[in-house]
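From the methods appendix. Each design record in this collection lists the discretized structure first, followed by the designed amino acid sequence. Records were kept in a plain field format so they could be parsed without special tools. The example shown here is representative of the layout used throughout.

RECORD:
C-ALPHA CELLS (231 positions):
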C-alpha cells in the first residue's frame, strides 16, 4: 500500500485564501491529523508564526505587507518580520530614537507586553529608566541609551505646556469681584466671573480665584480643593 502523499500547494492555497490560519485549520485543509506533515509543507513554502496568540497562527512569508515598524496585522492577529514577540520588542526598543514606554509598545503591538519587557530587562537585552514618573525602555548599550534618553527629554520639553500667570487686576475690578462675593457668598469663581461678564466686567475665572486667595480668607477655590484632595 502506497503511503498517502500531500501536496504543499494545498497549504499554500489555504493560507493565500485565509491570509492566516491555525495548525488545526491547515491540517483540516490538508486532510491530515499530523502536525509535522503540515510543518514540512510550510517549511517548503516559507512561513511565519504570529507573535500574538501564543504563536498559534501561520502565514506565508510572501503574504504580509509590513508597516514601518515591521509589523503586519490580519484582524487581531499580529505578525512581525523579526519573528517572536521577544525578538520584536528588543528590536523596536533598540531602534527607537527616544526609546519606548510600555504604553507605546502596547499601542504598536496591540497587546500587553509588560512581562516580556521585564524578562528582556532581567536578561540584560534592554534597559529600563524612570523618566518623569514613567519607565522608558532603552538600548542596553550605554552610549545609545544616553542618546535615546536625550531625545526623550527633548520631546517631553517640547510637549510641556506653559500656563501663563493670570494678569493682575486693576483695583476697580478687584472691588467688583469683592462686591460680587458680598452679594453671593457661596458663588464659585466661575459663577462670579460669569456674572461680572454679563455686566460688562472683563475678568477671568483664574483672576477671580486670585482675588479669593488674596482678599477672601477661608474662601474655597478649585485650586485649594485640588491641592487638598487629589481625587
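DESIGN:
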Amino acid at each position: 500500500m502506497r503511503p498517502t502523499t500531500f501536496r504543499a500547494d494545498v497549504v499554500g492555497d489555504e493560507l493565500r485564501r485565509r491570509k492566516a490560519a491555525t495548525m488545526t485549520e491547515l491540517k483540516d485543509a490538508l486532510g491530515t491529523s499530523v502536525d509535522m506533515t503540515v510543518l514540512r509543507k510550510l517549511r517548503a513554502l516559507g512561513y511565519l508564526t504570529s507573535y500574538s496568540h501564543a504563536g498559534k497562527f501561520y502565514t506565508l512569508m510572501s503574504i504580509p505587507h509590513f508597516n514601518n515598524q515591521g509589523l503586519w496585522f490580519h484582524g487581531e492577529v499580529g505578525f512581525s518580520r523579526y519573528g517572536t514577540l521577544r525578538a520584536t520588542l528588543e528590536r523596536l526598543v533598540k531602534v527607537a530614537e527616544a526609546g519606548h514606554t510600555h504604553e507605546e509598545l502596547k499601542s504598536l503591538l496591540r497587546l500587553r507586553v509588560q512581562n516580556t519587557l521585564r524578562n528582556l530587562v532581567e536578561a540584560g537585552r534592554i534597559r529600563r529608566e524612570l523618566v518623569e514618573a514613567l519607565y522608558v525602555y532603552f538600548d542596553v548599550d550605554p552610549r545609545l541609551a544616553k542618546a535615546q534618553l536625550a531625545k526623550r527629554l527633548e520631546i517631553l520639553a517640547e510637549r510641556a505646556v506653559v500656563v501663563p500667570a493670570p494678569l493682575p487686576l486693576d483695583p476697580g475690578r478687584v472691588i467688583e469681584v469683592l462686591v460680587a462675593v458680598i452679594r453671593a457668598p457661596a458663588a464659585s469663581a466661575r459663577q462670579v466671573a460669569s456674572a461680572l461678564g454679563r455686566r460688562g466686567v472683563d475678568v477671568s475665572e483664574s483672576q477671580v480665584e486670585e482675588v479669593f486667595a488674596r482678599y477672601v480668607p477661608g474662601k474655597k477655590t478649585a485650586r485649594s480643593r485640588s491641592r487638598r484632595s487629589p481625587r
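APPENDIX NOTE: The chain has a mean pLDDT of 88.
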